[in-house]
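Here is one record:
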Amino acid sequence: MGELTIGIDIGGTSVRAAVVDDRGTMLDTLRAATPATATALEHCLDRLVGELVSRWSAKAVGVAIAGFLTPDREVVRFAPHLAWREARVAEEMTHRIGIPVFTEHDANAAAIAEQRFGAAARGHNVLVLAIGTGIGAGLLIDGEIYRGSFGVAPELGHLTVVPDGRPCSCGKRGCWERYCSGTALVDTVVELLADKDWGRSQLAADVAADPGSLTGRRVAGAAADGDAVAVAAFAAFAASLGQGLAMIADIFDPDLIVIAGGVGAASGHYLDEAREHYSRLVTGAGHRQLARIRGTQLGENAGVLGAAEVARRGLAAASGRTPDAMTSAAAGE
């Protein structure tokens, strides 16, 4: 079973925590609603960790956070869905619970998990694209997380793909995630329904009866049933995904792209078509090698598993050992 660590993934609506062994097996899991204030969130994290360490001898905690962290991951500068601002989360939590705590950007945690346990295991230069409410991205260059000079790279979801397009919560217009995300699917369906009469579309009838019922998950379900509106929405989604991947390939030239996140589960509705757009739009099409594009192998567990691996690597760095050496020592080799 090896060294045990705790991984915590803080989402906008829920906090997930798990005890994880060095093979990526989740041995015990807990979930709680995400509190609205910083103090309540800290109490929630302490309670979850306290409950898990009462049952397991976990040595450290990793916390995956959607937000801007400093390059050393010591300070959470800003988290759009959380109350932390310029907060020394890892240091303060370590003092409170008595075991080491390490923090990481949630998309980077997912990339680390896919590299260690999942679809990115054999990649060299890898992009892990987490598509859910928006777009998160983790980039591995020569196997190492790329953070940029100030710790906020890569914010790929806010590349402008449609000049003066849909407004984005970041303050810009036409951002990629406004055309390629779960919320984007909803907006696309609304635009399609306003554009023409879709006849016998059940999705159109459902939206007319209850506009509030329209969600990305609902669109995916309708697409699985062959609904014309949903199929058209996913075609637009695939085109935008392919366009964005071509732009990213022109900049980073990855050998592997992993599609993760909540919308990743619906990849059967768009991935093949997105590959076609990508291969056609990338610069030098037909005269260069293309990245392999794969779906996630870890699903919604990537953030938790990645956070636990961050904790494990943090312990290794603090002790002057490599993570592999820790695994061997814990196994008695």
In short: DSSP finds ten helices and 13 strands in the chain. The first strand starts at residue 5 and ends at 10. Residues 228-252 form the longest helix (25 residues).
